[in-house]
Design a protein that fits this description.
Shape: flat
Low-confidence stretches: 2-6
Helix content: 40-55%
Strand content: under 5%
Structural class: mainly alpha
Distance between the termini: 80 Å
Number of helices: 6
Order of helices and strands: HHHHHH
Largest sheet: none
Radius of gyration: 25 Å
């Protein structure tokens, strides 16, 4: 026994036209969801504006999610660790209000520095990764590296520009 879903046929060529337009506009989510949302809109008696808002909300949500995923991937974190996973019991001296403020990532657009110092094993790397993920989720580009690698990178001599005759 097979089941079929009840869908209303689209007017001549509308489906292929929308497929073309969503591909050209680079809006794949709209291309995937417009039909099911149209059916939902018909059943719920949505206005045209409500339908359009629902379609665009899906596209924006998918685009933001993909952007966050890409920023986290290109940050080169050694592992994915979140602030929510951090065990505050291991570091009782860390003020929760300071951590909550840092989690907002408002320090990034202000170009403020966050320096995590302490002996090994306290969770500095976990906190740095968690803050980086929060910053990426806020739409900021992030690049993770260890202090040792940053020092090595900065200490490396740069090759001087060579003078070239015309």
């Amino acid at each position: 026994m097979t089941t079929t879903t009840k869908t209303r046929p689209t007017p001549d060529g509308l489906g292929s036209k929308l497929a073309y337009l969503t591909r050209v506009l680079k809006t794949p989510t709209i291309g995937r969801t417009w039909e099911s949302l149209a059916e939902q809109a018909r059943e719920a008696n949505w206005s045209h504006k409500e339908y359009l808002a629902a379609v665009l909300e899906r596209q924006v949500a998918d685009r933001e999610s993909a952007g966050t995923t890409m920023r986290i991937r290109t940050a080169h974190f050694p592992a994915i660790k979140t602030l929510e996973d951090f065990n505050l019991e291991h570091l009782p001296s860390l003020r929760k209000d300071v951590l909550a403020h840092l989690a907002t990532a408002t320090f990034v657009p202000k170009a403020e520095n966050v320096i995590l110092l302490g002996p090994p094993g306290l969770g500095k790397t976990h906190l740095a990764i968690g803050l980086g993920i929060k910053a990426a989720q806020s739409g900021n580009s992030v690049l993770f590296d260890t202090a040792t690698n940053w020092i090595d990178r900065l200490a490396r001599p740069t090759t001087p520009a060579r003078w070239r005759p015309n």
